[in-house]
Amino acid sequence: MVHCQTLTKIMDATSNDELWQEWLRLMIQDFGFDRLLYVSTRFATGSALGNAGDQLILTNYCEDYLREFVDTELYQHGPMLKWALNNTGACSWSAIAEFVSKQEITPQMQDVLNLNKRYGVTAGYTISFQPINERSRSAISLAMNQNKSQSEADAIWMKHGDEILLINKVAHTKSLTLPHNTSSGKRLTGRQREVLSWVSDGKTIQDIAKILAVSPQTVEKHLRLARDTLGVETTAQAILRLALQNQIFVFPA
């Protein structure tokens, strides 16, 4: 059973790195799921995850696998991701056989299956979390050790499924509250975040210039660079993205 201490460690995490380490430890040590891939976005469009640069991705897969699966965005064609985009809850990877039997596998999906077979990613479960709005999507794949079969994964889920689901739901909910950078790897400077925060607080460029003791042109430069870094056209869009990453009013010491 889930102990209060377990959930307390998750809820007390102060960063996604800290949260992820505890998340991994629980899934690996307690249940045998040794490779995890968590993807979350607030900018999903229709039946797709949207721009990869807007996604938070947490994983412990090896670099070679990530280069082929994540960097190329091949993961967007995964059969279980397609399931996760249209469902909530947990699903055994035995469902992949149903995709194949119904001939619903596209060439890109087959590429995913071939890649996973090469790396021993063949047994596990996918959890799709309840969206918080119509454009949010979040899911995690839990892969068993490559020496384990899907029937062994199903047996573990039969015994501990409710506990595993609860831990992952709590960890996912906590992740939504923590500051993070998306998978684009682009980061704002502390001054850029600070200027955006002042704008979100209703300050004009002239107000911010006085507060920071700089020229209005310098403030405008910080705003322009922030927009470029975040890949948006307007300051309002930049503030929205920063807010969704929980980075408004968060600057380095």
Offer a quick outline of the entry.
This protein has 253 residues and is α+β, with helices and mostly antiparallel strands.
Q: What is the secondary structure topology, with strand pairs?
A:
Elements: H1 4-11, H2 16-31, E1 33-41, E2 56-59, H3 63-69, H4 79-86, E3 89-92, H5 95-101, H6 107-118, E4 124-128, E5 137-144, H7 150-175, H8 190-200, H9 205-212, H10 216-230, H11 235-244
Antiparallel strand pairs: 1-2, 1-5, 3-4, 4-5
Helix pairs in contact: 1-2, 1-7, 2-7, 8-10, 8-11, 9-10, 10-11
If you consult CATH, what is the topology of the largest domain? Beta-Lactamase
The level 1 CATH classification of the largest domain is Alpha Beta
Number of helices: 11
Question: If you compute it from the alpha carbons, what radius of gyration comes out, rounded to the nearest whole angstrom?
Answer: 21 Å
Percent helix: 40-55%
Quick one: CATH superfamily of the largest domain?
Answer: Transcription factor LuxR-like, autoinducer-binding domain
> Would you report the number of β strands?
5
Sequence stretches where pLDDT stays below 50 over 5 or more residues:
none
Tally of domains:
2
Q: What's the overall average pLDDT, rounded?
A: 88
Alpha carbon gap, first and last residue? 40 Å
What's the CATH architecture of the largest domain?
Answer: 2-Layer Sandwich
Strands in their spatial order, largest beta sheet: 2-1-5-4-3
Shape: elongated
- Beta percentage is 5-15%
**Largest sheet at a glance?**
5 strands, antiparallel
What is the H-and-E element order?
HHEEHHEHHEEHHHHH
Helix-and-strand structural type: alpha+beta
